[in-house]
Design brief:
2 copies of one chain form a homodimer.
Chain A lengths: L1 E7 L3 H19 L4 E4 L3 H8 L5 H9 L2 E6 L12 H11 L4 E7 L12 H4 L3 E7 L9 E3 L3 E9 H16 L4 E6 L5 H17 L4 E6 H10 L6 E4 L1 H11 L10 E5 L5 E5 L16 H13 L4 H17 L12 H12 L1
Parallel strand pairs in A: 1-2, 1-3, 3-12, 5-10, 8-9, 8-10
Antiparallel strand pairs in A: 4-5, 4-11, 6-7, 11-12
Helix pairs in contact in A: 1-10, 1-12, 2-4, 6-7, 8-9, 10-11, 11-12
The complex binds 3-isopropylmalic acid (2 copies).
């Protein structure tokens, strides 16, 4: 398997290395060969070659079997003519990664670390399907001396495909989709609601579909997170809501994501950002990145047993308390990764 | 004082009545005369005259000393050609209410009802300044067979005036403003950040200003809500974030808001919506509306003592447990209002 690794900025390189170690261990045990090719993205690419997504990075990603990404961005590039995040947005678009999957399961051993009460977060098991290649992220922008504008556009087809992905996931889960929009204000949201309702009626009538407004959803996700199974939403709302729920499990450092397109390689990255304040100090939690690698095995390579093995090892390590500082532990990134590798063996 | 009352839909009429009772009591005690004139808005107006903001409602609001609003909207008008919310957006725009103030103080007696841990929410004391007359709420919308669009526009002047309002509030509080945007993606956010930074440097250098991205803010507000004093943000982000934090205090039914313009009357409404499921059953919590009336006394009429008196009465009633079902109490809307009136006397 040819895997492109985009370490990126901040703690990105440290966690990317952790994922490679874990995958190499999986390869040894199960007899797979994972070849890793590192390429530049984000601030690291700006520093090296002056652009956030160099042509050869893009070509390598498109030709790979899958892509692992650490993190991009940091205050270092504030006010720079090119922004690190542009590289991330550009690679999402170039690879056609329209569905961003952000699963959240609150581990019983860590529920007590949540800012929410244990009885509210215990047993939470949901997944966000965030549309990732359209909306206000990719609309036309204008700027003049006196004003600025951003355009949010959604086509029927863009909504259909991510809706189908969410309904399909719900079929394998508890059979419920909550679609989030702001249909009382936005035209794109009204289209969103119509299209999701139609795809549901025509193709997935056995799934339970409910609609929620983004503002009340921001409340409900804190008051009763256990009620949700699959949450389907557009790009910006997905960005905000999935970050909001990322605190439920006790640390954002735990959470993986997968970004998938129609076919072609997927991209797998932790939810956490580049965390420049702790970069290079062996402090980052490798779990989010390692679980992203497990998602890669499952979604891109159909290696279910191997993915299960990583997830079981992570669960065991979390239960054992062999964790990084964000979870109250004493291990560094390298030692926490070694604990996961040992648990897999 | 001439007060226009817009009861609106769902529980709106019940809570609007509660506010009038409390104000009448204040008038008796302090020797003011409050004249209330009821007008139609939202779904109630659609049902009665076919439009969500009738001309005479608008004229009455513009001529009033202040406006009290209950709530608008409900599933009854889903799919209706005119939407109840349009009336609310139209009156905000017509009255030029560019600053929406949403204070949140977590009452010590109710902190245990929060979905968050007591030690996280205890002592929270913040206020959101949400821009209310621009952004994606008021931009051009398009719709065709295959796609829809919403335009988000901000002018320099629109950002300046709400930023000034937030900095002025911070001067009277703990001296800190957190401005929230998505400057790594949106052009309007980059303009927002520039203008807020300039107004700060030129006019309020003694205030501490920090910038946060909306996605990480959605996290921080749950992890460390006590760190915030004044939160300044654009219309849509303000809608989402202020609803998110509304759960911190244990019930959204407790929270007031004030919408203010340059001069002219302000509009005061609870944060909660029309709650059609409990409408007409004497179940709604009157506190959010009553505290909105207190904000009216303070901001529009400069009646500080009178506002203090309402707020103290509400605090005493909450502490005594004379509360509605959303707070675990047994009182209805009418009885809970009477408890507040008695406490004022
Ligand atoms: C870095 C930023 C552009 C990005 C986004 O907003 O999509 C990030 O927040 C994310 O969620 O992956
Ligand atoms: C009813 C709706 C249009 C409104 C808004 O989004 O502004 C409401 O959610 C609010 O926050 O006052």
């Amino acid at each position: 398997f040819n895997i492109v690794v985009l370490p990126g900025d901040g703690v990105g390189p440290e966690v990317a290395l952790a994922a490679q170690r874990v995958l190499t261990c999986i390869g040894d045990i199960y007899g797979h060969r994972f070849d890793f090719a590192e390429h530049l993205i984000g601030g690291a690419a700006i520093d090296a070659v002056g652009e956030s997504l160099p042509e050869d990075t893009k070509a390598a990603c498109l030709a790979a079997d899958a892509v692992l990404l650490g993190a991009v961005g940091g205050p270092k590039w504030d006010g720079a003519p090119v922004r690190p995040e542009q590289g991330l947005l550009a690679i999402r678009k170039a690879m056609g990664l329209y569905a961003n999957l952000r699963p959240l399961q609150v581990s019983p051993v860590l529920a007590h670390r949540s800012p929410l009460k244990k009885e509210i977060v215990e047993g939470v098991d949901l997944i966000v399907f965030r549309e990732l290649t359209s909306g206000v992220y990719f609309g036309e922008r204008t700027r003049s001396k006196t004003q600025a504008s951003d355009l949010c556009v959604y086509t029927v087809e863009e909504i259909e495909r991510v809706a189908r992905a969410a309904f399909q996931a719900a079929e394998q889960r508890r059979g419920k989709v909550t679609s989030v929009d702001k249909a009382n204000v936005m035209e794109t949201s009204r289209l969103w609601r119509e299209v999701v309702t139609r795809i549901h009626a025509e193709e997935y009538p056995q799934i339970t579909l409910e609609h929620a407004l983004v503002d009340s959803m921001a409340m409900h996700l804190i008051r009763k997170p256990r009620e949700y199974d699959v949450i389907l939403t557009e790009n910006m709302f997905g960005d905000i809501l999935s970050d909001e729920i990322s605190v439920l499990g006790g640390s954002i450092g735990l959470l993986p994501s997968a970004s998938l397109g129609a076919d072609g390689p997927g991209l797998f990255e932790p939810i956490h950002g580049s965390a420049p304040d702790i970069a290079g100090q062996d402090l980052a939690n490798p779990v989010g990145m390692v679980l992203s690698a497990a998602m890669m095995l499952r979604h891109s390579f159909k290696l279910e047993d191997e993915a299960d093995s990583i997830e079981a090892a992570v669960a065991a390590v979390l239960a054992s308390g062999a964790v990084t500082a964000d979870l109250g532990g004493e291990l560094g990134t390298v030692a926490a990764t070694r604990a996961i590798v040992d648990a897999i063996r």
